[in-house]
């Protein structure tokens, strides 16, 4: 019977978003169990091979879920769940943040920031709509011409993931998110309170403008409160998942949204300093020059030598962090859809 | 999908509502309803039946309740008083259409 739970668990993410999922799964569960009872007859238990045959006859979880979707449409029930996922990820978590970043970047670079920003936003919107149009056309053609055999996916109910494993995995994942975001919030809050200044050498390096350099200082001062607030929201959502697994869907959605916002915020903050990345190249030569001159390098001198380079390295870090947040938003959305 | 299959599905769609309403003159739960229809040659998959039951219930044609039976909770459906009236009207209409079609065909 555990196989039935796994089967129902695999159906859930593909059900239409507005459908009463719990009710549908409860009815499906009862329907399957009634059929199993009937086939079992007087036997104590139904052999696994027979149960597998029953589930296979009902169809792949994705196909079963698709039958609960809307009736006739340009993209039919076979491909609609995949279309929904691709459109959500591509538009919501890639194109939309990119649109924000590109618009902010255009506004910052232009002497007419408002006009440039609005123009860039409309251009990006046009591109997003075109992308959506192409996506709909591709899936409509697929739905119309894909052979029936391609929809009859090869699958084996015995290979469906175990429900308990999935929940346990989600719990550990939530713990990881909570810990990571606590570290992030504490790090940003401690920098804001000036705690690192008490570390040996850091005070001198900061006075000399080495760390954080001018770019990073501006980015940090403008965004640390927001980063701490978003990190705490993630901690709250992850804690909810840990304490109350029934609310995992809501928690995962919050984490996806927070990460998308954080990614867009970090990328937008780092974008104006993109040009300084080239200065990283001077990092190595700067040190070699100091060594060749036989200069005893203290923190203050090191700051003067490496300030801009460290700043540029920090911008690279910001980019990596921003992209990481967006990738995480995509994976959390995928997780949300599968819960 | 070939044209016959498309037209066959269209023909079935309206008839299924009538069949489900008629089958629920006596109380049944989902699986027994599906089976009783299948035994009479009208196979209906769960993805068609359950949304249809929900729609008919929201229209006031059916009543349902979750009850324990044979150690499990099952949702039992039955025709509502309004559903009985509607079934009579639909049945009369069905007979009229069938008569007309008989003459035309």
Give structural notes.
Chain A is mainly α and 339 residues long. Chain A has 13 helices and no strands. A 3-stranded antiparallel β-sheet of chain B has the order 1-3-2. The model of chain B has no long low-confidence stretch (mean pLDDT 91). At the A-B interface, helix 2 of A face helix 2, helix 3 and strand 3 of B.
Keywords:
A: about 350 residues, mainly alpha, about 0% strand, B: about 100 residues, 3 strands
Q: What's the rounded overall pLDDT mean of chain A?
A: 76
Shape of chain B: globular
Instruction: State the secondary-structure class of chain A.
Output: mainly alpha
- Radius of gyration based on Cα positions of chain A: 27 Å
The low-confidence runs of chain B, each spanning 5 or more residues with pLDDT under 50, are none
- The run of helices and strands of chain A is HHHHHHHHHHHHH
In percent, how helical is the residue content of chain B?
Answer: 55-70%
Largest sheet of chain B: 3 strands, antiparallel
- Strand percentage of chain A, roughly? under 5%
Q: Biggest interface pair, residues each?
A: A-B, 18 and 18 residues
Taken from the alpha-carbon principal axes, the silhouette of chain A is globular
**Ends apart, CA distance between termini of chain B:** 26 Å
Largest sheet of chain A: none
Q: Determine the strand fraction of chain B and express it as a percent band.
A: 15-25%
Rg of chain B (C-alpha, Å): 15 Å
What is the β-strand count of chain A? 0
């Amino acid at each position: 019977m555990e196989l039935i739970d796994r089967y129902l668990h695999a159906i859930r993410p593909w059900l239409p978003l507005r459908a009463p999922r719990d009710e549908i799964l409860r009815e499906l569960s009862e329907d399957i169990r009634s059929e199993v009872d009937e086939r079992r007859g007087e036997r104590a238990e139904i052999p696994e091979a027979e149960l597998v045959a029953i589930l296979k006859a009902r169809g792949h979880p994705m196909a079963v879920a698709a039958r609960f979707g809307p009736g006739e449409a340009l993209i039919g029930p076979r491909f609609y769940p995949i279309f929904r996922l691709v459109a959500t990820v591509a538009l919501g978590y890639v194109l939309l943040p990119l649109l924000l970043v590109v618009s902010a970047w255009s506004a910052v670079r232009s002497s007419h920031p408002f006009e440039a920003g609005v123009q860039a936003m409309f251009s990006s919107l046009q591109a997003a709509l075109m992308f959506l149009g192409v996506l709909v056309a591709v899936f409509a053609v697929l739905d119309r011409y894909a052979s029936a055999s391609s929809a009859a996916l090869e699958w084996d109910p015995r290979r469906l993931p175990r429900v308990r494993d999935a929940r346990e995995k989600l719990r550990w994942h939530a713990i990881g998110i909570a810990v990571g975001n606590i570290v992030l919030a504490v790090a940003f809050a401690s920098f804001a309170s000036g705690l690192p200044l008490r570390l040996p050498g850091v005070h001198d390096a900061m006075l000399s403008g080495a760390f954080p350099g001018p770019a990073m200082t501006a980015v940090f001062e403008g965004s640390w409160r927001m980063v701490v607030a978003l990190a705490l929201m993630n901690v709250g959502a992850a804690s909810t998942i840990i304490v109350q697994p029934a609310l995992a869907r809501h928690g995962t959605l919050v984490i996806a949204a927070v990460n998308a916002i954080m990614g867009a915020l970090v990328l937008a903050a780092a974008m104006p300093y993109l040009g300084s990345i080239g200065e990283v190249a001077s990092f190595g030569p700067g040190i070699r020059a100091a060594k060749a001159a036989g200069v005893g390098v203290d923190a203050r001198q090191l700051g003067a030598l490496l300030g801009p380079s460290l700043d540029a390295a920090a911008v690279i870090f910001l980019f990596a962090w921003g992209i990481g947040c967006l990738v995480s938003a995509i994976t959390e959305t995928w997780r949300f859809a599968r819960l | 999908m070939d044209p016959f299959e498309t037209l066959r599905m269209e023909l079935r769609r309206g008839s299924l509502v009538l069949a489900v309403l008629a089958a629920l003159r006596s109380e049944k739960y989902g699986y027994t309803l599906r089976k009783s229809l299948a035994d009479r040659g009208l196979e209906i998959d769960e993805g068609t039946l359950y949304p249809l039951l929900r729609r008919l219930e929201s229209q006031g044609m059916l009543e349902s309740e979750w009850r324990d039976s044979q150690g499990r909770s099952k949702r039992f459906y039955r025709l509502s008083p309004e559903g009985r009236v509607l079934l009579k009207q639909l049945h009369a209409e069905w007979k009229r259409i069938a008569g007309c079609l008989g003459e035309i065909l």
